[in-house]
Amino acid sequence: MNEPARHDQDPAFRNPALSPAERVDDLLGRLTLDEKIGLLHQYQAPVERLGLRGFRTGTEALHGLAWHGPATVFPQAVGLASTWNPDLVRQVGEATGDEVMAFHHKDPQSVGRNVWAPVVNPLRDPRWGRNEEGYSEDPWLTGVMGTAYARGLRGGHAVLKTAPTLKHFLGYNNETDRCVTSSGLPPRVLHEYELKAFRPAVESGAAVAVMPSYNLVNGRPAHLSPLIGSHLRTWAPDDVLVVSDAYAPGNLAGLQGYHKDLPEAYAHAIKAGLDSFTQDDADAAATLGHVRAALDRGLLTEADVDAAARHTLSIRVRLGEFDPATPYDDITHDVVNSPEHRRLAREAARQSITLLKNDGLLPLANPRTVAVIGPLADALFEDWYSGTLPYQVTALAGLAERCETVYCEGADRVALRTEGGYVGASADPDGGPLHVGSERSCFDVFDWGGGAFAFRSCANGRHVSAGEDGVLSNDQPGPNGWEVRQTFRIEERPRGVVLRNISSGRYVTVADGVVRTTDDPDAASVLSLEPVESGAARAAEAAARADVAIVVLGDHPLVNGRETEDRATLALPERQEALLKAVHAANPATVLVISSGYPFAVTWAQEHLPAIVWSAHGGQEYGHALAGVLLGDDGPGGRLTQTWYRSAADLPDLFDYDIIASDATYLYYRGRPLYPFGHGLSYTRFAYSDLELSPADLAAGGTLTARVTVTNAGEREGEEVVQFYTHQRRSRVKQPLRQLRGFVKVRLAPGESRTVSVDVPVAELAFWDVTRGRFVVEEATHKVQVGASSGDIRLCASFRVRGERIPPRDLTSGPLDAADHDEYDGVVLCDAALDSGDAVRSTGPGAWIAFKDCDLGDQGSSACVLAVSSDEGGVVTLRLDDPLIGEVAGAVSVPPTATRHDFVEVSTPLAGAAGVRDLYVVYESEGVAVSALGFCP
């Protein structure tokens, strides 16, 4: 077809009849080099001569629009996923996208349409501080939910409503030292777990942008990952925009020290695929100066800049920025917190509520009086990425609308006494500096776990905060902000306690009657915490007078488990658990309601209480949803998307990302969890029958259909999430114990039956074969397991797959990458070069890596050549069949090398190495890295 004529008054990039690629080509060709460089920052400069407005990336919209004033607040992401309802999650994304557009129309410069959501990091470890931002520990379920939310955000037209951005690529599950720690991802974990969570939303086109993570992966900063080009961009049907995380580019030459200066670092980042630098807030000058310096030094070419600018312009074209009109022009502020969105928030909260235990107490049978107790009973909290609550329906408010309630917060009330008198607080509603005097003043103490306590002044109901000047004042509504200045540690001293502000690390002291903080621990004022009233005792009295007690406990989303802070334990805060025990002793009819962004090890409650309910922080309609479930208007609709462990002792090290070797997540965990993945009870009972598999014998390209009949065997209508898992019975490699392959959420009336099914393409049963560097479907028998959770399997059946048989490793086909080993001990994965490639480095003498089933030939290989690197040199031994007592086939001396990226080749004759054997590379020295092995016939 002929290209339409181009006129300056009607440039091609403004013609919606052309393809996005044609429009981008036209616009890119009109820009100068400086103008193209100006597109590489979060705050893109306008190009007035072409009528291009400024463009800003990065509007937060994780579970509703955030940071721009009141907007509908939906349940946290982990709560949305616990609905096991992708269509509902899509609707929430759609509503959020509409509200983004409404705010954008009012203030297009502040509220951009590139939204930084969803988060699709698999929730590998429940101690991760950002647990509430993700969806599930299962990568497939994460992909389903992330795709649903992104699809809602992007809208249903060819023109994007918003441009959803997946966070955070890749291997990101720890806040502790997050900018300098490296996540070790062996090939199977990389391909079967981490990448699997990102691919669906990108491949389907639901997400059109990706944000790399702060951490390093196998020793290389994630912002420099070659996987951006080799995987992310190859999955996508269109251009993908890659935006940096905030201030992460500066780390490349700063905290991470990966490059000597920023021009060099930024050149590498752009070549690796980074398109937009989120650095120095709105001030783009320094970043763009470093890019220009990289060009001047020959580290970048204009073609490199063009590639990055193209990705940015592609998104802007697809957002309809240059169109005469878009399908979203009529969205007004009326959609924000509209009745429809309120109803959706309530339904999302209801379906997210998960019943963990019920001995028959729930649903409540017309209670006359309900005691509503706990620090979260009459409070809703905003997390760092939630919007501003337009209104709050707390648990107390929701129940109070329905029945007579008695409320007790349950906080201990104390006085703080020093040698000079009592710590006092201002009665002014806005608060004022704390002081010391003779009159006793009281404070309520809140235990948020992990040794974090908050103090609320009884004088005005405001929390104590350490100001930037160090002075303590009772002037805050509660813990808040990026730097939470309202929490303290209580440290024991011989004559009492001292308080230490967690944010600043400074100690509380009294100087000239003013209460402030000091860096000197010896100058800390020793305090006595004089009990005034026991919160547990007051709560027990309230519970004793009621028919039933509802105790609402959990976390504060900004304290002890948030961005920048991991948890050390899974336990409930000590004073919260003491409160629960006191209430239960006073009234056995006690329901524990947990509101949290992560699992707790509520082992005592599981053993002693009749009923336990969990949900993530549920947004503005939480109280209505909770009251409806507790009182039986509808059943709990949630199921867990994470394993709830009995103790942190059941978990591997926080920094151990190898879920396969460490038996982590429900996929490999061999212990008995407190609550298994997929767990969630109903107010009725469901029976499973007639599991059928068709066909039961499949070729590699086939599709298995699994059908089962589910019957409501109880007396109430209810919802069931029918879950289908598979397990490969025999394999060359360690296989998951069970793996989710599909689910169906059904609502059934009493006595009603329904047959449900899922289709499982055989290709989805593939695993990563390290011997050949690709996915493979193995010849094997598999078992289908169907049930109400991964730990409540009701029916099983077997099917056979006629796949491949993995042959022995062919050592003559080329070099053997050291990272493609089968097993290991005492090693870490590291970067073999700045831009690409992995190596394996020993962390101490006696470390080893194993290559199973190596075909050394009938006559054997005559020599092995290893690519090695070491600061100080060392020795590597090759053994057969065992790393300790196996026959020595050869050994090499490793010379010291100039840098860790300088690999040299060393060789050794192989003695007696013939046939198919297991080959062990044994590191006799610490700090030796091996990148590859080659074999000579």
TrEMBL record:
InterPro entries listed in its UniProt record: Actin-crosslinking, BXL, CBM6, Cellulose-bd_IV, Fn3-like, Galactose-bd-like_sf, GH, Glyco_hydro_3_C
Keyword hit for Disulfide bond: no
GO MF terms, alphabetically ordered: alpha-L-arabinofuranosidase activity; beta-glucosidase activity; carbohydrate binding; xylan 1,4-beta-xylosidase activity
Keyword presence, Signal: yes
Record PROSITE patterns: CBM6 (PS51175)
Gene Ontology process terms (BP): arabinan catabolic process; xylan catabolic process
CBM6 domain boundaries: 814-936
Keywords recorded for this protein, A-Z: Hydrolase, Signal
One Pfam family it belongs to: Glyco_hydro_3_C
Family membership: Belongs to the glycosyl hydrolase 3 family.
Role description: Catalyzes the hydrolysis of a non-reducing terminal alpha-L-arabinopyranosidic linkage in ginsenoside Rb2 (alpha-L-arabinopyranosyl-(1->6)-alpha-D-glucopyranosyl) to release alpha-D-glucopyranosyl (Rd). It is not able to hydrolyze alpha-L-arabinofuranosyl-(1->6)-alpha-D-glucopyranosyl (Rc).
Name of the protein described by the UniProt record: Exo-alpha-(1->6)-L-arabinopyranosidase
Organism: Microbispora rosea
